[in-house]
Automatic annotation (TrEMBL):
This protein's record includes keyword Transcription regulation: yes
Domain RNA polymerase sigma-70 region: 28-93
Keywords: DNA-binding, Sigma factor, Transcription, Transcription regulation
Keyword Transferase: no
Lineage: Bacteria, Bacillati, Actinomycetota, Actinomycetes, Propionibacteriales
Family per record: Belongs to the sigma-70 factor family. ECF subfamily.
Record-given protein name: RNA polymerase sigma factor
PANTHER family xrefs: RNA POLYMERASE ECF-TYPE SIGMA FACTO, RNA POLYMERASE SIGMA FACTOR HI_1459-RELATED
Amino acid sequence: MPSDDGDLDDLARRAAEGDRAALEDLLAAVQPRVRRICGRMLLYPEDAEEAAQDALLLVATKIHTFAGRSRFTTWLHAVASNSARGTYRTLKRRAADRLTDEVAQAHPDPRTTSVIAGSRLDLLEALEVLGASHPDLVEPLVLRDVQQLGYQEIADLLDIPLGTVKSRIHSARTAVRPLLAVSD
């Protein structure tokens, strides 16, 4: 097993070049990290696990797109964060599609409503609203405030200047702040 991020970078480069054994080792090594990343965004373990599995599948199928401009772990954070947000959107859509059926039932299916009832609903909803009007602001905000990556890591990952990263994060925070305000 890789002992540090440098080892992961090496495995990722080899996997991106088509080394199947390196890909299998890489996926095994990053699985716990991917679960933690998804768990930060999705309250319920089942939802986080679904997002983590989707993220691992994306890593396996898209590893060839890892260009090495940033650390592999930075790239991985972006993939896992986007997967968690995608899982949230899917669960929300499923819940809306089944709303009529669930109203008729005495006990709604928790698998389709768990994230909707979760305490992070306000953040995920705010990200959806922000994404509709300013999609370029969402990823930097998630990478900084949810995944806690450094500004330079985000700049490297997104291949944009550091000042642009800081500006986008500031703009995103300004836009989501009123959406997260607690009402009395």
